[in-house]
Amino acid sequence: MGKIVGKVTDFVGLTDIKGTEARGNAAAQATREAGLQGAQISAFRPVGMTSRFGSGQFDITDVNGVPRVTGASYTVSPELQAIQDRLMGLTGGALTSAEEAQLAAQPLGQAAQRLFNLGGQYISESPEAARQRIFDQLQQARMPTQLQEEQRLASSAFGRGRAGLNISGSGQPELYSLARAREAQRAQDIVSAEQQAQQQVQFGSGLFGLGAQQLGQQYAIPTQALGPLQSYLGTVGTIEEMGQQPFRLGLAVGGAAQPGAQAGAQLLTSGLSSAAATQQRAGDAASAQLTGFMNQMLNSAIGGMSGGGSSLGNLFGNPMTAMQYGTNLGSQQTRMLAAQDAWF
Fold first, then answer.
1. Among 91, 1, 109, 22, residue whose Cα is nearest residue 337
2. Residue 258 CB partners (closer than 8 Å, separation 6+)
């Protein structure tokens, strides 16, 4: 009897474990399928489109059951492609012209360098030194004239006998007038030296500015020569963008539909997962009820075999027992024993 009871107990436990495992696997499979369906619904699906400017194509491949964009391309219309080809044919000559302009502008850079060097010479001297140098040059330039004036005055004064004449303590009148004139000229030369020193600095700075203009022209000429080439390439790029419009529109349409698809996929996945969980809970509850019934039946059977007929009678007085084995005690015991024999 103990061996039979042990086998029955093992069978009940094993049946419950296997049932629980099967229900868990079924729930897991249902959840996986729900996730796969959600991924399929929410997958990004750009739309191939065509316009008079071109067309856009997308390669969608099934990867592990989920559609994926594995390639994309666009095609410019034949009419626009022909215009592009003609424009690209003009770029070769435009590039050659730009290269020739660059070679022609190189002397401007050399001229600019010479102007920089010359300007540096003019501004390398300090204003004080320049003023003194210019003043000394003026005095040295006037020296021959002043000697001639002195000689002419001396011969004239001595010739008229006025060499020793002294009026009001100022000395000889002609020499006095000459000295005053030279003092005035000296003051004027100081002012002139100052002005010329300033002009020298301004002139040197002007040479730098002129050199900068020449240098700018050296780079401006090739840049201007590149204008036609840039215009051709810009037009080619504009045509390319026109051909890309259907491609971009297809991406936009697919992107606009994706939020709704993702929301629907989330609702579907949540609903399927909840259904799988509910089904598993219901199976677990039914398994627990069945296991409890079988344990109760086993305990009642053990009690009946030990002389406690009332326990077995109580067992088969249970409505659920009556539904399965009938209401007659003898027939119920016979059927139960037969069921136990069938288990083993």
1. 1
2. 42, 44, 45
Whether the model clears a pTM of 0.85, i.e. scores above it, the answer is: no
Please report how many Cα atoms fall inside a 13 Å half-sphere around the Cα of residue 110, on the Cβ side: 5
pLDDT in tens, 86-138: 999 999 999 999 999 999 999 999 999 999 999 999 888 888 898 999 999 99
Express each pLDDT in 245-298 by its tens digit: 988 888 887 776 667 656 665 656 666 667 667 766 766 666 676 667 667 766
pLDDT tens digit sequence for 182-211: 899 999 999 999 999 999 989 999 999 999
pLDDT of residue 125: 86
3-state secondary structure the chain: CHHHHHHHHHHHHHHHHHHHHHHHHHHHHHHHHHHHHHHHHHCCCCCCEEECCEEEEEEEEEECCEEEEEEEEEEECHHHHHHHHHHHHHHHHHHHHHHHHHHHCHHHHHHHHHHHHHHHHHHCCCHHHHHHHHHHHHHHHHHHHHHHHHHHHHHHHHHHCCCCCCCCCCCCHHHHHHHHHHHHHHHHHHHHHHHHHHHHHHHHHHHHHHHHHHHHHHHHHHHHHCHHHHHHHHHHHHHHHHHHHHHHHHHHHHHHHHHHHHHHHHHHHHHHHHHHHHHHHHHHHHHHHHHHHHHHHHHHHHHHHCCCHHHHHHHHCCHHHHHHHCCCHHHHHHHHHHHHHHHC
Distance, CA of 182 to CA of 174 (rounded, Å): 12
- CA 214 → CA 3, 124, 173, 195, 219, distances in Å? 115, 22, 60, 28, 9
- Angle CA(124)–CA(127)–CA(129) in degrees, nearest 5? 85
CB 260 within 8 Å of CB 43: no
Q: Tell me the pLDDT of the chain averaged across its residues.
A: 76
- Report whether 127 contacts 198 (CB < 8 A): yes
With contact defined as beta carbons under 8 Å apart, do 56 and 226 qualify?
no
Report pLDDT for 340: 46
